[in-house]
Amino acid sequence: MNGSRQCFWGRGEAMNVSYSYSVKSDKSFGFTFMKPFLGWQKYSNISFSAYRDFAYLPWNLCNSKENGLHFQYSGQLWARKLFHNIKATMTWRTLCPSRETVFSIREYAGHTIKCSLENSVAFDTRNNRLLPSKGLLLRFAQEYAGLMGDATFVKHQFDFQAAAPLIFGTFLSASIQASVLTSLAGRSLHILDRLYLGGPYDVRGFNINSIGTRGNTSCLGGATSFAGVLHFYIPLKPPESLFAHAFLCTGCVASVHSKNRLSDLANFQRISGGIGLVLILGNIIRVEMNYVVPLKHSAGDSYTPGLQFGAGINFL
């Protein structure tokens, strides 16, 4: 459920309240207030968000409760092609183990507080953010956690996406995402802060967030990750909403204890390929139904050849 109101003070403000409940009993509640900066071509705003989430994490075999506050500034420059975002976050998290949770994850159970500051700069010329047929995205993001609370780390992330039209409405698209986490103050990276890959949104054919070091049936995440996807799209009917595509995915996550992260990323790459359908609903959400075959995997990986479904806004 979602409810919103625009310009209730007559100055461009927006307020949104949302509540969701999934078939797997995941629940979330969120409130957001946004205030734009007024003036000629001032494409910037500030916002405040409060949320509360309850979710089951199948890759960790445990439950997570999260209460958070966000304060954010968003700005646009250079003919609205350069985007700058600064966000301050304070989160109270609770990791609740289940009977199946392994000890290597159970040791992180309980309450933690994370206070972080994030900064990102992006250059974006894509004609559509859900499924671009032309244009380029370059994004650099940094996050520093350790102002208060238990989480202390620095995270760097690089995102790249390029799309180019071909003949008869077909087009190619390539995406890359690379992330590095560095723990501070000699503390171990919390299981909730680590990097994960796998699933219908990045390395298709593998179970969600399942790539990397494992503890029995659970994924332990990592401190360095790399993922890349190459797509070939063919428009169907209606041509602006429905597409067939073929794709090739690769990705890897290096352990938090890795002595040579670049070597691990190069030597333990997972690869998958497949074909499927992509549906864009109202330029709001992207839906994929794919048939995927893992072509390269490592011992202990959790993967499922066959049909895989995904719906969301952030896809590689």
Automatic annotation (TrEMBL):
Mode of membrane association: Multi-pass membrane protein
Record localization: Mitochondrion outer membrane
Keyword terms, alphabetized: Membrane, Transmembrane, Transmembrane beta strand
Pfam family, one: Omp85
Main localisation: mitochondrion
Gene3D superfamilies to which the protein is assigned, alphabetical: membrane protein fhac: a member of the omp85/tpsb transporter family (2.40.160.50)
Source taxon at top rank: Eukaryota
Entry GO CC: mitochondrial outer membrane
One GO-annotated biological process of the protein: protein insertion into mitochondrial outer membrane
Domain called Bacterial surface antigen (D15): residue spans: 8-315
UniProt keyword Membrane, yes or no: yes
Family in the record: Belongs to the SAM50/omp85 family.
PANTHER family with a match to the protein in the record: SORTING AND ASSEMBLY MACHINERY COMPONENT 50 HOMOLOG, SORTING AND ASSEMBLY MACHINERY SAMM50 PROTEIN FAMILY MEMBER
Record's protein name: Bacterial surface antigen (D15) domain-containing protein
Protein source organism: Dracunculus medinensis (Guinea worm)
Lineage of the species this protein comes from: Eukaryota, Metazoa, Ecdysozoa, Nematoda, Chromadorea
